[in-house]
Design goal:
Radius of gyration: 17 Å
Number of strands: 0
Number of helices: 4
Structural class: mainly alpha
Strand content: under 5%
Mean pLDDT: 84
Helix content: over 70%
Order of helices and strands: HHHH
Largest sheet: none
């Protein structure tokens, strides 16, 4: 019964228009972290450095999307949850594509 009421609330609750702006600004710390990750890993002599970089970026973006899925679930925003799941799918698809091409 509780699951039905949660689904009903998620479909009925309107999302704040500032939610998209908050999502875009949440990319800023991820970008800063990637810049530091990039500059710290470049001078290292690591085999398959590109693979490590791709997986690092994918892990950071997947973590961000997971946060937004949780945030949408808490605030009963079905569209935020759906966009987070789509973002996770996109990350997994791009990593799979990269791994199949390399």
């Amino acid at each position: 019964m509780d699951g039905e009421s949660k689904l009903h609330r998620m479909l009925k609750t309107r999302r704040d228009p500032r939610e998209v702006q908050d999502w875009i600004f949440s990319l800023t710390p991820l970008g800063v972290a990637f810049v530091f990750f990039f500059f710290l890993i470049m001078p290292m002599d690591i085999p398959d450095k590109r693979l490590v970089m791709v997986l690092g970026v994918a892990a950071g973006f997947a973590g961000l999307q997971s946060y937004w899925i949780f945030r949408g679930w808490r605030k009963n925003h079905a569209s935020t949850v759906l966009l987070g799941v789509m973002g996770l799918g996109l990350v997994m698809g791009l990593v799979w594509l990269y791994l199949s091409l390399v």
